[in-house]
Batch of 2 targets.
Target 1
Amino acid sequence: MCLEGATDDWSVALMTEGGTLGELSFGREKPMASFLVPAIRDVLQSSGKTIKELDAIVISSGPGSYTGLRIVASTAKGLCLGSGHPLIAVPTLKSISWQGVKSQAYDRVIAIIDARRQDVFCAIYDNNGTEILAPTLLTLSESCFDPWLGGKAMVCGNGLHKIDSFTWSSIVEKGSPRIAAFSLFPLAQAAFDKGEFENIAAFSPFYMLPPNITQSKKD
């Protein structure tokens, strides 16, 4: 069972090596705090599966939305503790990059997630999935990717809409902006095969930014 909550567009997917058994995707109109558990239940029911039949619970570990990552992590921990299944955490930016990495068609895959203003959460990978730039908070500019634009590059993730005003956007290939639960599966499968599981009690998402708290204007 894969759970993606790093952005406002969150999703749940039940995956096997043979493909997707069930998936539900939502946006802001369905707040995760209220709809995540019912969505998990609905995906299981529509697939004819139970929690006990799963092999692992997989989550997107960040960076991304503080609230979304926190809700997904706490829900996943509860499921793991109740079922005895292991917890697998997949770095969000690495899962986004997989669409470009698996094709072996790009020298660089730049994964970006929309953050505040002109900022993005960003990481860069080579065509083997090796991390070239560790996840960081980056302010987009004309020169921000200069060291990595040699050769063929793909940019992917839900921050794509922010790059069109820069001249370098015309020399990169644009991948999918979608950040979805099913994208977690390839890296989660590799982690499962290696027995790379999280300590459920100690695990905390990689938030990178503190929660965006708006102060009251009342005196």
Target 2
Amino acid sequence: MLIKIALDRVTVYLSGEIDHHEAARLRPQIDDALMRKRPAEVELDFSDVTFIDSSAIGLVMGRFRVIEAWGGKVAVSGLTARQKRVMKLAGLDRIAEFRESEKGDNTNESDQQNASDGSGQVG
């Protein structure tokens, strides 16, 4: 994980698998940066994330709870089509803005193929 701190924005570049153990390790590091800087926005970039479970949803929701204390906003970027679908089903699009990563679209070929094969299933 890399945390980039700008004037009014903190960007967190996540990588690997975001499961219960990894989320527990990441939370205090991200929260420390947020509490020190108190930015107007935190962006969680999932471009290099290979796996998520419900802990990733909790990671986003928890950072929303932290930053909303001073009126900040949460953005989520770099999601695969499958990750985006899971997060939208969980209702995160009501508390976070979904956007492309600075690294570009993260929709991989299998997500695109499955989404367009007519089955209605993603991934």
